[in-house]
Structures are given as structure tokens and as C-alpha cells.
Batch of 2 targets.
Target 1
Amino acid sequence: IRLACPEFDVVGLAVPGVPGIAHFGHTGRVAWAITNAMADYQDLYRERLRRTGPDGERVEALGPDGWRPAERHVETIE
């Protein structure tokens, strides 16, 4: 959207129901953006896994107390 008058000339993204150009816009000399418009809902985990046993059928995970067995199951989708 563009909003122009003798005092202002603004171009940016408008959200229906929100007055003006609140999230992303620029005037030619100044620009702005809101980067945290939504809450963070993702977590990142770093896991170290290893396979053990004669055929590698057991899985162990490294934790604060060392290597421990991890749950594992196989699903077949036909």
C-alpha cells in the first residue's frame, strides 16, 4: 500500500484490520520491519546416537550420565 500526503510518502505492507503500515515499510530514507510478529514455537535438540548389538538393532543416546538405551521401533507403511 502507498500512503501519500504533503507531509508523508510511505510504501509498505498493510494487514487487513490494522491501520497504517505497521509491519514493513519505507519512506525512501527510512525503513522498518517487525521481526518477532509471532511467538517462537520450535525447539532445537542436538542428539548423539549410536547403534550397538550384533546387527546394530539397539540404539543408545548420549546424555549427562553417559550412554543410555533409547526407545526404538519400526513402522512399515504399505
Target 2
Amino acid sequence: MQAEVLGCSRAQGHLRLRSAIRTADAAYRAGQAYLSDVEFDGLVAELQQLDPSAPELLTPGGGSKLLSLDKQELSDWLAGLGAAAAGRFSVTPKLDGCAIALEYRQGLLTAAWTRSGADAMHLLPLVETVPPRLGAPISVQIRGELYGLDGRQSTPAAALRRKVPSGKGLVFAAFEVMQSAADHAIQLLALERWGLPIPPYLLCGAPQLARHHRLWLQGQLWSELPTDGLVVQLDDGQQRRKLGVNSVAPHYALALKR
């Protein structure tokens, strides 16, 4: 009897967790998010442990999950990298929009999805900076950010839920080749060569990271873009693969905010 009660309790908890994820995702896409990215990804990570095949975890075409970024103190993060902290880092603007993944097969755009896994193919082909065909006949998944020219984070979220979609006033910038073992700078060059817009970036050592963050805080770095921080990543592909990711965020990247 006790085992039956325990099993029922677990089943109810599983259903409540799935419901919580669906509700939070719907609020996010409606521009009324009440959970932070970290809180939402914590729910997703818990569900992944309980039920990896849950519909709430699936993405169009079996696409990869879009991870969030760690937001710990820079000094603590660098200390955690160990010897890798002596290497080179890439620094890009943290664009304030919606995380989007694109999938190209044999160079043709075949799928697009959001951080929560919602299908975005009704909108992304209408965005001028999303090429329908790459400059090479390759199959690849690409991560980037969809943002509004008006600088409002709510603009892409509203566009994604609009019944009559329009790409007007929206921009997509690509910044990662998903599941790639290449250096980040090489990924960015490849994305640009394939015909995708990429964000501006800097390459530097660890001692310069705090200075770049300070310049951003002072409005002297990428002030022309709608940003809510900087993204700092280890550039070396081998180190990135060695450090890996957890269920929420990659260990090789960090978000520097206010």
C-alpha cells in the first residue's frame, strides 16, 4: 500500500512539473515571463531526470536543447576553469532578445525553434537576416538570437506569437555552430562565410575580460546594439569539449551583466 501511495505521489509530481513548464513557457512567449532563465532551466533539468522523453523536452526535428548561460562572478568562474583560464577568450554582446536555433540540411533551412523547443518556422524564414539557403551544402544546427531593432526584448516574443507573422523590424544574429568542436572564433568565421550575420566580437586573454565588462557598463562597448550584458567564452575548441556542459549551461561560457 505504501509503495502505491509513493508511486502515485511521484506521478502527480511529474504531472505538476510538466504543467509548470508548459505554463511558464506560455507566459514567456506571451511576453509575461515570471521565471528567470535559470529558474526555468532548473525545472527543465528536473524533468529531464524524471522523464527524458517528456513532450515538453522535445524540439522540432529532434533538435538540440538551447542552454542558458552561467551568471556567477567572473573571478569564481575563471578559478573554476583551472589551467584553461590561461587561454584565449571570445567576447560578444549578449543581445537582448529570444534564443533561436536554426537547422539547415544540405544547405537549406528546414527547422527553427525557441529556447523552450517551440516551433518557430512560421516566423524565422520571414526575417531578412535569416538566409533560406547557406553558402555551402552542409547540414548543421546553428544557435543565435532574434532581437528587435527597437531594442525591446518583448518585440521578438510578440512576433513569435502573432497570428499573422511578420519579420519586419526583426534581426537574427548567429553566434554558435551547435555541437561543434572547433574554436569559437573559427565557428564565427564559418557562420559568416555561409552567409549568416554574426555579432561583433573580441579575442583576448583573461586579464582583459574585466576591462571589457567595465567598458560595456560605461556604455563604451557595443552601445549601438540592444544588449543586457556580455558573453565570455573559452575560444579553444578542445578545452570547450573537455569542460562540457551540464543540463542548464555550458561550463566554458559566462554571462557578464550589471
